Amino acid sequence: MIRIAIVEDEQEQINIMQEFLTRYEQEKNVDFEVAVFDSGVKFLADYQPIYDLVFMDIQMPHLNGLDTARTIFSMDKNIGIVFVTNMMQYAIKGYEVDALDFIVKPLKYYQFSVKLARVIEKVRKREGREIVLTVSKEKIRLSVSEILLCDGGQAHPGLPHQPGDL
After folding, report:
1. Which of 30, 45, 104, 162 is at a distance of 20 to 30 A from 56, taking alpha carbons?
2. Cβ-Cβ contacts under 8 Å for 26 (sequence gap 6 or more)
3. Which of 122, 147, 140, 145 lies closest to 50 in space, CA to CA?
4. Distinct helix (H) and strand (E) counts, the chain
5. Do strands 53-57 and 80-85 pair parallel, antiparallel, or not at all (unpaired)?
6. Backbone phi, then psi, for 43, in 5-degree steps?
7. Cα-to-chain-centroid distance, residue 140
């Protein structure tokens, strides 16, 4: 299952992306779990690093997509972001925040599906190489390469072994 967030302030664009994702699921036999946010502010309000991919509009009121992406990357370096924009000059700025790709509006299914396939390939390469942990009621995503020690609750000589000792 691939978890996708759509962050878009125009309901028509949300509907189109949801329709395209449903069509892609049926054509390619993949499963998506999709959450929709109508602003970057709402997306960040209780952000948890559970999403594999975000389709994000760049031009949104209050907090634009580029600033939203910068904030997300400070919390979750492994998330994939695809910017959706109607202005090409903004798309180039998307690469400044490590966006995986961009799609120019108006959205067309072929373009959307080709880019989605590329992004899914990148997401699948990460599968099995990262885990999501709950720490103090907050979820964090870790790359397996970041894990230095995993303790199954057994005490080890010379290492702290009480909860909170680390």
Report:
1. 30
2. none
3. 140
4. 5, 7
5. parallel
6. -65, -40
7. 13
Tokens for 23, please give them. Answer: 């069509």
Domain borders along the chain are 2-129
**Nearest by Cα to 14 from 67, 45, 49, 55:** 55
Alpha-carbon gap, residue 63 to 146, rounded angstroms: 31
AA identity, residue 123: V
Hey, is 141 helix, strand or coil? Answer: strand
Q: Which of 111, 86, 66 is nearest to 13 (CA)?
A: 86
CATH code of the domain occupying 2-129: 3.40.50.2300
- The pair of structure tokens assigned to 96 is 């400044």
